[in-house]
Amino acid sequence: DQQVKQNSPSLSVQEGRISILNCDYTNSMFDYFLWYKKYPAEGPTFLISISSIKDKNEDGRFTVFLNKSAKHLSLHIVPSQPGDSAVYFCAAGLRGTSYGKLTFGQGTILTVHP
Amino acid sequence: NAGVTQTPKFRILKIGQSMTLQCTQDMNHNYMYWYRQDPGMGLKLIYYSVGAGITDKGEVPNGYNVSRSTTEDFPLRLELAAPSQTSVYFCASSGGSGNTIYFGEGSWLTVV
Questions:
Q1: A82-97: burial string, b at 16+ Cβ within 10 Å, e else
Q2: CA–CA separation, A81 vs B11, rounded Å?
Q3: Is B42 close to A104, i.e. CB distance below 8 A?
Q4: Contact (Cβ atoms closer than 8 angstroms) between residue A99 and residue B98
Q5: Does B103 touch chain A (CB under 8 A)?
Q6: How far does A5 lie from chain B, in Å, by closest CA?
Q7: Is there a contact between A100 and B40 if contact means CB atoms under 8 Å apart?
Q8: What residues contact A79, with CB distance under 8 A and at least 6 apart?
Q9: Which residues of A touch B97 (CB under 8 A)?
C-alpha cells in the first residue's frame, strides 16, 4: 500500500517556463510534507516543506501548495533552470517522536531544456 | 563542512557474507536514520534512532541490525547478505522534531 504517490515518472520543461510536480497521499494523519531534490550519485537534499496547517509555502523560485481535502500537494518551480534537472521526491511524515520517519513517493525526473 | 558521511560508497558482497555500513554526522543531531532506495522506487526507512542507546525499526528492518553507542555514529549491519538487499543505502540525521533532515551521499551495495 503506497501511501505517497508521484504518478508522473518524468517531466520535461523548457528553460524559463514553470515546472509543476505533483504528489498524492492517502494517510490523513500526515502532518508535514517535504520536497527533496536528488542528483545522480548524491544523497537527497532538502528543498522546501509545508505543514498541514498551511496551504502554501514559498521559497524563492519554489512554491509548494497543499490541498488537504484532495490529499494532494504540488511543487511549482518558476522560472525553471537547466540546473533544476534532477529527481524530485515528495515525502510525508508525522511530528513528535516519529519525526524523520518519512514516507517517500517514487520520484519524478525533471528535465529542463535550455 | 562534512555533515553526514557514509562509508563505503560502493561494495560488492557475496550471498551469505556480512558487512557494516558506517555513518557518522558532525552536526550533533539526536535523530539518525537509515533508508534504502531500490531502482524506480522511493526511499524506505530501515531503522532509526532518537538518541544514543535508542533504536527502533522502520518499514523494512528484516536482515539488518543497528546500534547507536554515540551521538555521532549509527552503523548499519547486514547479516547473511541476500540479493534482495542490493540497493542504495542512505544515512540521514536531524536535530529533532521540526528540523531539516540531512542525507549522506549514499552507499551502493550489490549482493551477488
A1: eebbbbbbbbbbbeee
A2: 35
A3: yes
A4: yes
A5: yes
A6: 9
A7: no
A8: A15, A16, A17, A18, A61
A9: 95-97, 99
Pure H helices in B35-101: none
Q: How far is A65 from chain B (nearest CA, A)?
A: 19
Query: Please, which pLDDT band fits residue A74 given cuts at 50, 70 and 90?
Result: very high
Cis peptide preceding B39, ω within 30 of 0: no
Q: Nearest CA to A47 among B7, B102, B1?
A: B102
User: Is pLDDT at A97 greater than 90 in this prediction?
Assistant: no
Confidence of residue B96 (pLDDT cuts 50, 70, 90): low
C-alpha cell belonging to residue B70: 554515540
pLDDT digits (tens, 9 = 90+) for B25-67: 999 999 999 999 998 888 999 999 989 999 999 999 999 999 9
Quick check: A50 contacting B, CB < 8 Å?
no
Kindly write down the DSSP assignment for every residue of A8-46, as one continuous string: -SEEEEETTS-EEEEEEE--TT--EEEEEEE-TTS--EE
Which amino acid is present at A87?
V
Q: How many CB atoms lie within 10 A of CB A77?
A: 23
Give me the residues paired with residue B56 across strands: B48
